[in-house]
Amino acid sequence: MTRVDLNSDLGESFGPWPMGDDVAMLSIVTSANIACGFHAGDPAGILAVLKGAARLGVSVGAHVGYRDLVGFGRRNMDPSSEELVGDTIYQIGALQGLAKVAGTRVSYVKPHGALYNTIAHDKRQAADVIAAIKAVDPSLVLMALSGAPIVEQARSAGLTVVCEAFADRAYNANGSLVSRRLPNSVIHDPELVASRMLRLVREGRITAIDGTAIELEAHSICVHGDTPAAVSIARAVRDALVQNGLELKSFIHG
Questions:
Q1: What is the pTM of this model?
Q2: Which of the 8 DSSP states describes residue 211?
Q3: Which pairing describes strands 205-207 and 213-215: parallel, antiparallel, or unpaired?
Q4: Where are the coiled-coil regions (predicted)?
Q5: Are 240 and 197 in contact (CB under 8 A)?
Q6: pLDDT tens sequence across 27-45
Q7: CA-to-CA distance for 160 and 151, rounded, in angstroms?
């Protein structure tokens, strides 16, 4: 790989409760997965992040999730197909409206939290999210977990899929993410994260939590914006990639 996209989950503050440093992250990443109000975010805050993304030329994606403000969208749910399709369309549409006012546009969709992990392997819920995206705009790109069945399922349905890897999350040997309920599921050391991502970009491999090396197809790297060291980790990853000759550029820009 000669270039890579760096993304982060932003717009997750709610009223007077801040979540992450969106301003700093927007100056580092090339794509922003912006909350749509279901798992986090309020309209005024979301609009502010969209304006910042537009000003800096950062690509915008709809970070859709389960309707779960209390659980931050990280609790497993089993909505009906009608509910999940409707909720996904609603969230994309809301962000599209705000993005238009901010002078930018929604180019891709990245499901959040429990929804992201569920549709990676649950064919029915995956089909619902895919159907919702196609109903809104079939040109929208789906960002999905590298190696998960949904990648081929979405591509077979006609969507463009970008595979991503997580800079600050530990992986199981089968390529899935280590549950946040388990110790060491989130990596907080910026230097360690940066070295892991540099290896991934160079070799297509990452070290799983059990020490084995696993192969991952990754065209975008995610740094979560809600962790305490998020900005430091994102900067460390960006610096390591750039210093080693990689171009940081959104996948949306060709």
A1: 0.94
A2: S
A3: antiparallel
A4: none
A5: yes
A6: 999 999 999 999 999 999 9
A7: 9
